[in-house]
Amino acid sequence: MDSLKKKEKIIHTITTTSSNESINDINTEQSCINPSCFFCTMKEPNSMIRRAGLQRCFKEMPSRDSQALVMVLSGLWNIAMTQPDDPEFPSLGVFRCMASLIQKGIDNKSWLLKDQNIYIPYYAAHIIGSYTMNKAKFAEKAVQSGVIPPLIDLLRGKISWVEQRVAVRALGHLASYEKTFDAVAMYEEDVVKSAMQLASNCLEVVYTKFVGVPDAKERLGYHRDLLTRGVGGLDTENRKAEEWACQLQRWSLYLLNCFACKERSLNLICRQEFLKDLCEMWGGLVNHESPAGVGLIRILCYSKHGRKSIAESKEVVIRLCHISRSSDDWQYIGIDCLLLLLKDQDTRFKVLEISASFLVDLVELRSLGDRSNVGEEIARVLLLDYKQIMLKLKSNEVQRVMQEIWDLKVERRKREKTMPQEMVEERRVLVGLIKQQGNHVFCLGDIEEALAKYTEALDLCPLRLRKERVVLYSDRAQCRLLLGDPDAAISDLTRALCLSTPANSHSKSLWRRSQAFDIKSLAKESLMDCVMFLNSCVKAETAKGVKIPYHAARMISKQMEASWIFANLESKASRNQSSKAQESENYGKQKFDEMMRIMIERKGLISRLSTIREEPFMGNEEVKRKMERARNTRPSWNLQVATADRFEFSKLAPASSTSWTQGQDQSEPHSKLYHHPRATSRPARQYRLTKMSWWWAGAIGAAKQRTENGGAFRGHQSVALVIGVTGIVGNSLAEILPLSDTPGGPWKIYGVARRPRPNWNLDHPVEYIQCDISNMADTQAKLSKLTDVTHIFYVTWALRFTEAENIEANNLMFRNVLQAVIPNAPNLKHVCLQTGLKHYVGPFELVGKIKPHDTPYTEDLPRLSAPNFYYDLEDILAGEVAKKEGVTWSVHRPHTILGFSPYSLMNIMGTLCVYAAICKREGMPLLFPGTESVWNAYSIASDADLIAEQEIWAAVDPNARNEAFNIHNGDVFKWKHLWKILAEQFGIEKYGLPESGKKVSLTELMKDKGTVWEKIVKDNQLLPNKLEEVGVWWFADFVLGAESIISCMNKSKEHGFLGFRNSKNSLISWVDKLKAHKIVP
């Protein structure tokens, strides 16, 4: 009924509101005698009669010739935009009706130009696109109704660029579903060529046909009406036309991505001329969220053919280098592309010759947005087969750069590893003195001497003194700028920005690099740095009174003009049209004002994969309210939920179930397909797809957060209590919750663990509480005073010999925590409980003795008739939460967890890594400690970061309240494949199943390896630990010896969580982290 009321309200508004638009001139209030009248039918209270009437309307509409037809289409468009998931109209024949109307407009020009019919093909295509953007079943029905041929006719330009825009949007939706892709692919060559032509030429078409036409009377009237809905003058039309031109280009790229993701038509897409065009497709100033051309380039980098074609274009590679060394939102995409090209032996040397001198500046980049160890990954890829590479390289400059990377990341790091702290402090003092000398001679005007002093200080400064090195690099770059060497200045400033925390946040370096980019005529890069510089100067609380530095304002104005999407076209046209000068000046000022507004509002330009959506026109006040709601309520990292039927492309991806846009009629594509954000805060190896929700900011994928310095802290919105903060998932929660764009944030975090705080946990911004939660008195004393807690994350458990003892111990611990916190935390909102898949198979002691459920396991399966402390914990949770009104809960059931924590009871990663390290030390083969059936079976695993992301999502998303969810990576793997990767990570050549066929038991094999491990720890300067502390041998034997089980993630997806991980990449990244924290060599 609510849906019907909304429709009636929309129809009433359409039929009674008058405006300046010519399409509203029709008198719809006169008495109606048409039995097939759409508006009258919509008012019919009897649903069966109304549905029959609507079905008749849709059937007869294409054959009727009525002036009110455009009103009907306008009403349908509004309904489709506001209720795209409502099945009523799609089930009654709306798609066949719209297809017929489009075809009629194409075939019958006289009809098209009669009355207001010129609007009809636009609205019809828009309605198709709106109803197909979320639901696969609607897309299938649309294809069956024959919408593709008329949409392709529009795509070819049979009417105008305005209709091309909505046609490419609709085709993009249809091509993004697995079940409807083939229907679009039947016209593959035609579609791909048309989309390529549109992407390359649409800006010129829009400019010459509309923006570049100074006299409003010479512009097509219906274009003006559709762009502005009759509100606003010439400047408003120009701004909307610019926005639509950008959308037309990005949506064309989006359609191409549908084919590129499946490695289709790469021979067309990878043409050199088009690849060069892609480099310039950045989306313009109105594009805040789509990676545009570089997004498609990265998808091409995932295919052999694509990498080969890109490597052959020096211009494209250089453009990727510039992006990777800028503060552009898509910096990480440029880095990803270059790494993919460098990892391919067929393209490695060609790309290395160009990119090495750029990437050398990034090797000390710790984190980029949610990604960590980015520089380490870059260095690792560059130094692959270092000695062989140095013999093959012909360029002396590239050899010098490679030698510099080797010296910095290997030799110097090795030397400084043993440097005592006293010497570090001595060096700090000495470096400070030399820097002062440099400052002094700089003030005296001896720039070359100052340059020498700063270089001397850098050579002496230990690598760990990052803050000091930031300043030294930045000051040396200023000298290079004054000496007329912008390339060297950019190099130094990039290094300074990589060393800053967070990355790209040192304001002086941003301004200086903006100047250097300006000298090099790199307008976009200069603009982005200047924007970031202003972000560091602006305080959100005083946005109305912001004083923009004059020099920065001039730079912004200059680079905005230079990088405007129509700049080149306007320059050509203005040579013969001097009368346009004033209009250009006014429009330029509005562009400048818009950029100022964006910076002052400090918008998080978040990467997300979403649908192509367009909202109906709304008044200015409504726009402001909607934008404010979006800013205040969006769960940041990624937005927008996809159906389970949505195409899941391999390798593709940074809590709301609906998309949000930022203004009237936004129609943003949100980069649904061409975004590969990282799937975790580890080295950049994991990617994900679909319409993104926040968890992909890491998950990917998902998201990239602009660094915003200078904003005053406004207090914590949420307070988390993480019970088990040193555990495998607790550690991930401690890393993810403090991130600036984590939903529900800013977060304050209390972390509880039984043992003293370990060194590897010290860098997390957590208030650590050492507490034995099995002791009621200790728990009450330490946790009851945490009155500000809003969310509890219970991610710990105790292991006992029998399940009866497990029940007793774990019930006590969980009840102690809840009874200490719930009565004393007035603002408590949610309790998250983590259990596991033993919920479906029973406790360890009964595995093989009771019959488990059939796989795949779903959350609605009944409990087994066996004791299980997981069941007791869920009952305790329900009982305790029920005592406090408004508190919700969630339960999370992971499989084998891949993560980092030396303190975890079930740390399979740490155990296998220690086993591999011992095998490497003793020259033993890395034998698989499991059965042959497990070796060859499909298995699943759960990435610790992904579990944490789901738990945070469930804590803040109302769609997830009071539910239990399975959680695993979303893919399947075979241990025989992961075992090879594990062996490679430790340089072990021999690995696999035992030749004798006898099962290897790690419990037996590792019995007497304690002394071996002590030597490994000592020789590699690892964190002091005993073998029994880091190796849980019984657990590895159990996991790798038990029958493979699979759980189902459908419920999680249906409720809005679409995060996933590539299990292979997950394993590699956790091995890297264990090595980085000196747990294993």
From TrEMBL:
<dbReference type="GO" id="GO:0006629">
    <property type="term" value="P:lipid metabolic process"/>
</dbReference>
<dbReference type="InterPro" id="IPR055222">
    <property type="entry name" value="PRISE-like_Rossmann-fold"/>
</dbReference>
<dbReference type="InterPro" id="IPR058868">
    <property type="entry name" value="ARM_7"/>
</dbReference>
<feature type="compositionally biased region" description="Polar residues">
    <location>
        <begin position="655"/>
        <end position="666"/>
    </location>
</feature>
<feature type="domain" description="ARM repeat N-terminal plant">
    <location>
        <begin position="30"/>
        <end position="271"/>
    </location>
</feature>
<dbReference type="InterPro" id="IPR011989">
    <property type="entry name" value="ARM-like"/>
</dbReference>
<dbReference type="GO" id="GO:0016627">
    <property type="term" value="F:oxidoreductase activity, acting on the CH-CH group of donors"/>
</dbReference>
<dbReference type="Pfam" id="PF22917">
    <property type="entry name" value="PRISE"/>
</dbReference>
<keyword id="KW-0560">Oxidoreductase</keyword>
<dbReference type="Pfam" id="PF26524">
    <property type="entry name" value="ARM_7"/>
</dbReference>
<feature type="region of interest" description="Disordered">
    <location>
        <begin position="655"/>
        <end position="680"/>
    </location>
</feature>
<feature type="domain" description="PRISE-like Rossmann-fold">
    <location>
        <begin position="777"/>
        <end position="1081"/>
    </location>
</feature>
<dbReference type="InterPro" id="IPR016024">
    <property type="entry name" value="ARM-type_fold"/>
</dbReference>
<protein>
    <submittedName>
        <fullName>Uncharacterized protein</fullName>
    </submittedName>
</protein>
<dbReference type="InterPro" id="IPR011990">
    <property type="entry name" value="TPR-like_helical_dom_sf"/>
</dbReference>
<dbReference type="InterPro" id="IPR036291">
    <property type="entry name" value="NAD(P)-bd_dom_sf"/>
</dbReference>
<keyword id="KW-0521">NADP</keyword>
